[in-house]
From TrEMBL:
Record-annotated active site: 35, 204
MF terms (GO), sorted A to Z: hydrolase activity, hydrolyzing O-glycosyl compounds
Protein family according to the UniProt entry: Belongs to the glycosyl hydrolase 43 family.
Highest rank taxon of the organism: Bacteria
GO biological process, one term: carbohydrate metabolic process
rRNA-binding found in the keyword field: no
InterPro entries reported in the protein's UniProt record: ConA-like_dom_sf (IPR013320), GH43_C2 (IPR041542), Glyco_hydro_43 (IPR006710), Glyco_hydro_beta-prop_sf (IPR023296), Glycosyl_Hydrlase_43 (IPR051795)
Protein name (Swiss-Prot/TrEMBL): Candidate beta-xylosidase/alpha-L-arabinofuranosidase Glycoside hydrolase family 43
Positions bearing the site annotation: Important for catalytic activity, responsible for pKa modulation of the active site Glu and correct orientation of both the proton donor and substrate: 146
Length: 518
């Protein structure tokens, strides 16, 4: 009998484990998808996020199950044109661009709003077809920080925004600006107060909802000597009075809101700062008690969720690319974003079929001021990216290759100088670049690889080169991949080509291949 019980116990452990393996796990997306905002239309979920100085901007993602997401569009190609946005005259807009977006659906129209410290404006993007567009842009000043909009009864539209002290303004029905003589007041004098008086980051990241006749407002706050915390306020009327409490305080998971499923489940979506990979989404289950959303399991973020398991981030969020385009396909797949505004006259996937051609677009001596660096997210726990580069048309002073890009970045590339070429690995820390290793090179084709380890916040990167695509040679040193606020995003793979002397040269990237090392 004892043997039978032991066998039964083993069976239950094994079957229980298998059942758990088929469930979704946190983090839901192990990549940089911060400031998420989600809506559900029927059985489809749509999410917007922040990518700041990258373009196109404000990615729109779609899911059928809340777990497996695919980038389907962007709200804009560029925010505008200025030295900061164009990387001209030594200026840039790292860590700014557009911040926390808000996505809503009303009267068969999709609305995506955001704001920019770079331009000082608030932006409203609208479309009836969120997957194909076109998008209409409305903008007005000033830039309303971390705002959220709500379509209420009688076609009234409200915007809540601010930090610590939260404000509300009524918008015109078409969201083209502030409504004259509309509601305009302080909404909550000290929205941080449920978390105490010793506050490092005041309540911000507003997301506003109306559910069953009551108004709910989600915010993030950061107490000193504590962790990022979810705050929830509730009111019977939009103007208040509002009562608030701590919604969740675990793992630093915060800033987000509420979403329901077609079968009546509720979840909250947030992100967690996770070092060099960026700010990664976590979901928690929600139960309603006495009109309040109660977050998590025993006030904790669970590892497993009662949602379908993830099929991985490839190809929905990140993806390999051979740069071959069929008729009717876009020149670049949606996983790619340019660092700042691109110069579209100086890159092509059409001039040489099956290759990404990057012509030098900047004369500079640093990657951070180089135009037309093409990027996509790194991802965890471990990943690598590989590319094959043809360099026969480089001019003297040109530098092209593969980078792991943030404020502190590393790269491996080919540098043409004094009639010859070198394979070079460079590490940049605190704005100071140092050539770590150099290898003479006489060929026209070179393979590069960059690998990342984000497991348990290890945050380390390595670079390699190969002459045949089979034997890989480590170059330079292991680099640290710290998350820094000046760039305010997770590390990116980047393909680059810039000139230190004169324009006119170009290189061809044959492919970019991603590998998930889970």
């Amino acid at each position: 009998m004892k043997v039978l019980y032991n066998l039964l116990a083993i069976f239950l452990i094994l079957t229980g484990s298998n059942a758990q393996d088929k469930k979704a796990q946190n983090p839901v997306i192990f990549a940089d998808v911060p400031d998420l905002s989600i809506i559900r239309i029927g059985s489809n979920y749509y999410m917007s996020s922040t990518t700041m100085h990258m373009n196109p901007g404000v990615p729109i993602m779609k899911s059928k199950d809340l777990i497996n997401w695919k980038i389907i569009n962007y709200a804009y190609d560029t925010l505008g044109s200025s030295d900061e946005l164009n990387l001209d005259n030594g200026k840039n807009t790292y860590g700014r661009g557009s911040w926390a977006s808000n996505i809503r659906f009303h009267n068969n129209m999709f609305y995506v709003t955001t704001f920019s410290q770079t331009t000082g404006k608030t932006y409203v993007y609208t479309t009836k077809d969120i997957e194909k567009g076109p998008w209409k842009e409305i903008s007005f000043s000033p830039a309303y920080h971390d705002h959220s909009i709500l379509f209420d009864d009688n076609d009234r539209v409200y915007m809540v925004y601010g930090n610590g002290k939260l404000f509300i303004k009524e918008l015109q029905s078409d969201l083209s600006g502030i409504k004259e003589n509309g509601l305009d007041q302080v909404l909550i004098e000290n929205a941080s107060s449920p978390a105490g008086n010793n506050i490092m980051l005041g309540a911000e990241g507003s997301q506003l909802y109306k559910i069953n006749g009551k108004y709910y407002l989600f915010n993030i706050v950061w107490p000193k000597d504590g962790m990022r915390t979810v705050l929830i306020h509730r009111a019977d009327k939009i103007a208040g009075p509002w009562e608030g409490k701590i919604g969740l305080q675990d793992l630093g998971v915060a800033q987000g809101g509420l979403i329901d499923t077609p079968d009546g489940k509720w979840f909250s979506y947030f992100f967690r700062d996770y070092g060099g990979v960026g700010r990664i989404p976590y979901f928690v289950p929600v139960n309603w008690v006495d009109g309040w959303p109660v977050l998590g399991e025993n006030n904790k973020v669970p590892q497993y969720l009662d949602l379908p398991e993830s099929k991985g981030l490839i190809p929905g969020i990140v993806n390999s690319d051979d740069f071959s385009r069929k008729k009717g396909e876009k020149d670049l797949s949606l996983v790619w974003q340019w660092n700042h505004n691109p110069d579209n006259s100086l890159w092509s996937v059409q001039e040489r079929k099956g290759y990404l051609r990057l012509k030098t677009a900047s004369i500079t001596n640093t990657l951070t001021q180089a135009k037309n660096t093409l990027t996509q997210r790194t991802f965890g726990p471990e990943c690598s990216g590989t590319t094959l580069l043809e360099v026969s048309q480089m001019k003297d002073g040109d530098f092209a290759g593969l980078t792991l890009f943030q404020k502190d970045f590393g790269l491996v590339g080919v540098k043409a100088e004094n009639g010859s070429k070198r394979i070079v690995m460079i590490e940049t820390v605190n704005g100071i670049s140092k050539e770590i290793q150099s290898v003479p090179f006489s060929g026209n084709k070179i393979y590069f690889k960059a690998s990342c380890n984000f497991k348990d916040k290890t945050d380390l990167g390595h670079f390699y080169y190969s002459l045949n695509g089979k034997e890989w040679i480590s170059i330079g040193n292991e680099i640290k991949l710290p998350y820094t606020l000046p760039h305010f995003m997770g590390y990116r793979f980047g393909l680059f080509n810039y000139a230190e002397k004169s324009l006119g040269g170009y290189v061809d990237f044959d492919y970019f291949h991603l590998e998930n090392k889970n």
